Every structure is written in structure tokens, then in C-alpha cells.
Amino acid sequence: MSSRSVMGLTVAGAGLYLLVAHAANAANLTPNPGFESVCGSAPCNWSPTLGTTVTSSTTAHSGSFSMSVSESVSGGGAASDCISPLPAGTYSFSFWYNTTSTNIAALQGGLNFFAVPNCGGGGGNTALFASPLNTTGTWTQVSGMISAPAGTQSVWAEVFFQCGGTIGTTPCTPASTALFDDVFFGTSASTPEPSTWIPTGVVLSFGVVQLCRRLRR
Predict the structure, then answer these.
(1) CATH superfamily of 29-193
(2) Is the peptide bond prior to 43 cis by the omega test (within 30 degrees of 0)?
(3) Would you give the distance in Å from CA 117 to the centre of its chain?
(4) Domain residue limits, the chain
């Protein structure tokens, strides 16, 4: 669940805490972008494509989990839940990947656009490629700008790799695996940061101090 750029309050036991949500979080439209929410053995809000095996991994760029995509045929990927509504315009898109599979020929991430609100029917897509491709097992970021064409009403985000020039012609032998983490899709290039719970006794700014004083009356 993404955080909103607001300040909220909650009471837990006898302690009072302030939830400070960083402004960068509000701009990320990606469902479960850091793959921290896990449903069974796989990240919530993401589905495999082309018969790919998708699971959660504890080798993460940030947080506790990443998404592992494995394929032995010719390529594999995963797509997010539908993001709707989405107006046409230019958006920032980025993701981090990590792989040691040297038989991967291309790795990319991007958006699939649809002219209907529920990501139905055919649609166009735009992808950002990892270039040069890093297969040394270190986390590498791919980032850029993607324009949603006129008439766009919904999209899904997707990450993908293939083991040959044409999908379906070059098998991934041995089976190839790539990890993905921290997908960002939104109107700001800022990297999302997690929300922070802070005891009211900590002084953050004049406005927060005044709020704490009022709460103690």
C-alpha cells in the first residue's frame, strides 16, 4: 500500500505516535513497488507472464524482499495489477535488477497502455532496456521517461527478460533468473522512501511541536 503525503495519528497502547509520510511516496503509482507485500510465496499485485515462475526473494535492493523471475523456455516476466485511471502524459519509470544469468540477451521494464479503464483489449507498450546488461550479480538501475499516448485510460507496469533475439526461438538453458526491486512509475523522478513512525516527544519542526503540545492538554 503506498503512503499519502499527509500526517496522521494513531494510538497504540499508552503511546502516541506521528506517521510522517514522505512526499515522494505519493507520486509512485506502482502497486507494491518494492515487493514488500507477499501473498503466499509471490509478491502481491504482480502476476507472471508467458508461463514464468515468479516468487519472492530475500535478496533485496532495499527493504526485505525483491521479486524473482525465472524461465527456462525463451524469456519471462511479470506484470503489475491494472493502474486506472491514468491520463495521457509523460511519466518517469525506473526499476532495479540483479542477475548472474549470462544467457539473458535482453532485460527491460516498461508500461503497457490501454484505451479502456480496465487494461482490457489490445494496447501499445514502451520499454526501457538495460544497456549495457549487467550480469555480475550486483544491483543496477534502469530509468527514463515514458510517454502515455493520447487516449490512454489505464496501464500496467511490466518487467521482462529474454534469452534470444526473438521470443520463443532461443531457450533459456540453463534456466535463467533475474531479481527486480523498487519499481517507480509516476510524475516525479524521486526515489520513494518509506513512512516513519515517530514518538511525539521527538521535535521535528515548530509545527509538530505545537501539535504535540495540543495533544497533551
Answers:
(1) Galactose-binding domain-like (2.60.120.260)
(2) no
(3) 21
(4) 1-21+195-217, 29-193
149-203 residue pLDDT tens: 999 999 999 999 998 766 556 788 888 999 999 999 998 544 444 433 444 343 3
pTM > 0.85: yes or no: no
Q: CA 120 to CA 112: how far, in whole Å?
A: 11
List of residues 6+ apart from 7 with CB closer than 8 A: 18, 19, 20, 21
d(CA 72, CA 52): 8
Residues in contact with 110: Cβ distance below 8 Å, sequence separation at least 6, in sequence order: 93, 125, 126, 127, 128, 146, 157, 158
* First CA to last CA distance, the chain: 33
